Amino acid sequence: MTKYGYIRVSSKDQNEDRQRIALREAGIAEKDLYLDKQSGKDFERPQYKNLLHKLKKDDLLFIKSIDRLGRNYEEILKQWRLITKEKGADIVVLDMPLLDTRRGKDLMGTFLADIVLQVLSFAAENERDSIRQRQAEGIAAAKARGVRFGRPPRPLPDNFQQVHRAWRGKKLTLRQAAELCEMPKDTFYAKAVKFEKQKAMQ
User: Are strands 90-93 and 33-37 parallel, antiparallel or unpaired?
Assistant: First the structure.
């Protein structure tokens, strides 16, 4: 029997120390800790896949909380059953003692664990959806206030007007004009159209 620990944070700049400390205190060796720094929306994660490949019958998998495993309700249930039923390994969720498959392997224990797992999995996915909705509402509100997202547009090069005039006068091809302004043809054309509209409005 080997004890493994799985750690997940949603992005590269998030700190995983809290999970790492909890798993070490549970007796997991550093070499048996697997860490992914990406969203929990699905299980397409390299270290999780490596861990799954390693797990065998009677091994123990520790996680700090159910949302560290994932945030997709159906996928969490699917992976849980894969690990416990097909692989024959046990799972221990440190923040939720009821979710310890070593205990209560009788019908009532399994039933209680399944109910708790389904409620927590649903809550994890619901929180992910709520975060996404709040983000969308925040972006919409910011746009309504005139906030612009993304990189600011690059200013036109100093020679743009001269090149534009030569291009419109058919002294330069579109490709030549774009090259002189050091930009792709489509970009030059789009900027030329925008420039002309602005000039027409003056």
Answer: unpaired
Residues forming the active site? 10
Joined tokens for residue 79:
């992976």
User: Cβ atoms within 10 A of the Cβ of 47, count?
Assistant: 16
Strand order in the sheet with 33-37: 33-37, 3-9, 60-63, 90-93
> 86, 55 in Cβ contact below 8 A?
no
- pLDDT at residue 84, rounded to an integer: 86
**Helices 160-168 and 185-201: angle between axes, nearest 10 degrees:** 90
Q: Quick one: average pLDDT of 115-142?
A: 74
According to CATH, the topology of domain 3-128 is Rossmann fold (3.40.50)
Which pLDDT band holds residue 113 (cuts at 50, 70, 90)?
low
pLDDT, tens digit, for every residue of 46-68? 999 999 999 999 999 999 988 88
Nearest to 81 by CA among 105, 51, 47, 117: 117
- Percentage of residues of the chain with pLDDT beyond 70: 88
pLDDT at residue 106, rounded to an integer: 56
**Could you please report the per-residue DSSP string of 38-95?**
S-SSSS--HHHHHHHHH--TT-EEEESSHHHH-S-HHHHHHHHHIIIIIS--EEEETT
